[in-house]
Structures are given as structure tokens and as C-alpha cells.
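TEACHING EXERCISE
Course module: macromolecular assemblies
Task: Read the component lines below, then compare them to the predicted structure of the full complex.
Student: A.B.
Group: 4
Components provided:
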Amino acid sequence: MRNQGPEMEIVHLLRAVTVELGLRSARFASHNGMHPTDVRALIELMDASRAGEEMTAGRLGAALGLNSAGTTSLLDRLEGAGHVRRVRGRQDRRKVVVEVDERAVELGWSFFGPLIGKAVELLQNCDEREREAIRGFLEGMREASAGGE
Amino acid sequence: MRNQGPEMEIVHLLRAVTVELGLRSARFASHNGMHPTDVRALIELMDASRAGEEMTAGRLGAALGLNSAGTTSLLDRLEGAGHVRRVRGRQDRRKVVVEVDERAVELGWSFFGPLIGKAVELLQNCDEREREAIRGFLEGMREASAGGE
DNA sequence: TCGAATATCTCGCTCAGCGAGATAATACGG
DNA sequence: CCGTATTATCTCGCTGAGCGAGATATTCGA
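Instructor-supplied answer key:
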């Protein structure tokens, strides 16, 4: 193996976390008659709403790596299930602003709530320096994985 | 919003990392004529090989959340592309042991290598206590997300 | 030795997502 | 203002990943 320092355990741990989160998300999806992409869309929508930003059809599709046709059918699915509403943009009426239904937000929280609670609990048992180390590591990994190519 | 302590920034950061890793994995997949599931399968296979365990068709399918039919077609795909070989189990000849081709391992490293390098670099700039904090946080999140329901 | 259990495969089907192109609204040079 | 380029979304037809049902082959237990 290329590297076998004590760092590798943490690297594999991070990968394991992403795998487990993905599987849990898939289980939640099929349990609620949704597809993995629908759950990812809901996450993006809740995140945008939390940041106070409008989410358009195009931005959502780009965030999920879908083309426009796939985005349309995703929105058809979500709208048909009553999770979102399509609203024409006010200034630019070509755009479709996607609004999340309150019950879909509740559904999302029933899924993420316990995980978030556990995370907050773990972080509250850290002192400031430890929290900063965790934050720095995650921030670094996000930048490394977001990068181009 | 339900909670707005300083912990939430880290929670969202963790989610952002998993999203970015997923997108990067999808880009890598399409860039190599593969599907996201194929990449996930390769990860599982390399992980098992690293742990010195044999990976059978059934175990692989279970790890990915596929049924037996989907697993068979996944293996057909991977075998057709030359990434894996099917080998009948020696003691139990119902089983199919999946062996990864060396070139597929190289392909995997070309994708994960830079990310792993960045992670190791970040971790080497930490002292022992900070590393332990990161390890503990990820371990806790893995346990929380792995749990049943 | 025989039936139950287990591992994988085959067959037919559904539907997520793609490519190509239509439609509609906006931006902008002349 | 007009015509053209650009942008945002949608429609249509299609491919193929993954599912359910059931077939096949191997092993285990009474």
C-alpha cells in the first residue's frame, strides 16, 4: 500500500462516513417513495432556503449534475408528490423558482435531525481548539474535492 | 431554524464535503465511461482488498444496496470493461469471488490519490490531540449514520 | 439420500436521465 | 424600436441501470 501512516485511518474514516451517509439517504428515499436524486434535490433546496437564496430550476439541475431534460422530470416528480411548487420568476419570467413545501422540510428534518443532533453533541464535547481542527480539516477537504478538472 | 450555534457550520461543512466528493466521483465516472455505481463498487473492492478480505458478488451487492439481478449486471459491466474478473469460490463453488484488475486499481488511485495526499498533508499539520478530535468526530458520525431503522 | 437453504444468473419490464430540438422571455447593437 | 443572439425551461424519443420473479447450481442438515 502506498502510505500506511496513522493519517490513513482518518482518511478511510472520512470515506466510510460518506458511504454510510449515502446509504442512509438511499434507505430514506425508498422508504418515502423517492429516488436518491430527489433527496439530494431536497437537500439543495433546503440549503438554499436556509441561506436565503432563491433556487431556480437551472441552478438546481447544475448543482445535481443533471441536464435540463432531467431537471424538468425531477421537478415534475417532486411537484407531483407535493414536495415543491413551481413559481415563475418575477423579474426574469423565463426562470422557474422552486419553492419547498413546509411538509417536505419536516420530512427532511425527520431524516437529518438525529444526525445533526449527534454531530452537535460530539462537537459540544470538544474545546475550541479541537473544534477548529475539525473545521479546518473539513474545509480543506471540501476545497480539495471541489476543485476543477 | 432549529439550531444556530457555532456547531452548525461544521455540520454543514461535513455535508458539503460529502456532496463534493459525490459530484467528483460522478465526474470521474462519466470521464471514464463508467457509472456512479461502478465507481462505488470499485471503492468497495479496493477497500476489501486492502483489508485482505475476499469480496463475493453477494457481499458487493449488499454493500451497494443492489439486488442480485442488479449485482449480476454490475459485474457484467465491470468484467466487460476489464476492471474485474469473476472467479468461482474454491471451498463454496456457488460463490463468485470478484478480483480487481491491477489497472483498475491504478485508475482508482489516479482519482483518490490527490485527495488522499491533501488529507494526509492536512493531518500532518495537526498535533496528536487535534488528530484525535478529528478521528473521534468522524467515528461518531459513522456510527450515527450506520445505525439501523 | 433428500429437501431446505444459499449464491448467482436469466428474463422481461419500468422509469431516471440523456441528446436534440422546440418554445418563450430577455439583452443588446444598430 | 426592430432583429438577432442568448438564456431558461420544456417536449419528445430513446438507452440502459436496476427491480421482481423465477430458474439453476451448489452446499448443508436430518
